[in-house]
Amino acid sequence: QQQVKQSPQSLIVQKGGISIINCAYENTAFDYFPWYQQFPGKGPALLIAIRPDVSEKKEGRFTISFNKSAKQFSLHIMDSQPGDSATYFCAAEKETSGSRLTFGEGTQLTVNP
Amino acid sequence: DADVTQTPRNRITKTGKRIMLECSQTKGHDRMYWYRQDPGLGLRLIYYSFDVKDINKGEISDGYSVSRQAQAKFSLSLESAIPNQTALYFCASGGAGNNEQFFGPGTRLTVL
To answer: I need a labelling partner for B53 at 20 to 30 A (CA). Which of A70, B17, B34, B74 fits?
Structure first.
């Protein structure tokens, strides 16, 4: 049973466009929601994260929007660049569990020049 | 040098063979993790360890075992490899009180 569902599985965006990746979770005990970015041949790396006490967090061109009542959160990449082409994973964690992340299925993003 | 290293980076083995994947980290982290990545399934937790004497099963531990030889070293073993264990395996480490996990470069394992 996938506790964190991610969509779409793949996404193609033109340079300068907005990339949007969505995630939905089931466990209301989750209280930390990171996004990881993975380039080919590399391990995932933390990109940005949010806690449910805020509805939005922005870091540069990357924004997480969080909807606690809907149990959904999304990653928005503004002004998408070819260098953003990677696989993106959302994840969720109950912090008292000691950093046990549950990952979504992943989204392969391609940004065309 | 990389903070989290994994050896080997690629391995091809046969059904029934025992295989060990090794992970080392230089970040001084107490917590270490093993994940497997399969297309369309994301990353799934196999085992995790919060210190040398603490080993815990993740969501898909069947067919795997681990050893935490030291704070910096965490190895994953497949006692008798089977083809559906063909996957990309990642080790990660993290500090207590810090949610961020730092991943190694991965080991691509193929079981024929």
So the answer is: B17
Provide the pLDDT for residue A93.
92
Q: Do A44 and B43 touch (CB under 8 A)?
A: yes
CB-CB under 8 Å, A99 with B31: yes
pLDDT for B89-104, tens place per residue? 999 999 877 789 999 9
Task: Put the strands of the sheet holding A56-59 in their side by side order.
Answer: A4-7, A19-25, A72-77, A62-67, A56-59
∠ at Cα B20 (B9, B33), nearest 5°? 75
Evaluate if residue B1 carries a pLDDT over 60. no
- What pLDDT shows up at residue B47? 97
**Cα dist. B31→B43, B51, B90, B92 in Å?**
17, 6, 14, 8
Res B111: pLDDT: 97
**Residue A50: C-alpha distances to residues A27, A94, A97, B64, B82 (Å):** 16, 13, 17, 33, 39
